[in-house]
């Protein structure tokens, strides 16, 4: 699975979510680019509230060339740099990309 990011057609700069203009060069044309994996830079746990389970959010760098994403995870990572398979669950009304941690 993968998510689509926006890549500038002029300079190649990659961003998520998409923007009207490239923040690097100001060009106004971009194309979608599929990204399948990322690496965890940092993460946090939002404690469970009532019947809701804990939530795990990570800041991750899409590989190989970025951008940096906020990703929702099913479980907490075991270490920085852990690889994540990216999943687009936007059709489910979820605004953040999801990630499935790869085993160490």
Automatic annotation (TrEMBL):
It comes from the Bacteria. InterPro entries: ChsH2_Znr (IPR022002), NA-bd_OB-fold (IPR012340). This is ChsH2 rubredoxin-like zinc ribbon domain-containing protein. Residues 6-26 form the ChsH2 rubredoxin-like zinc ribbon domain.
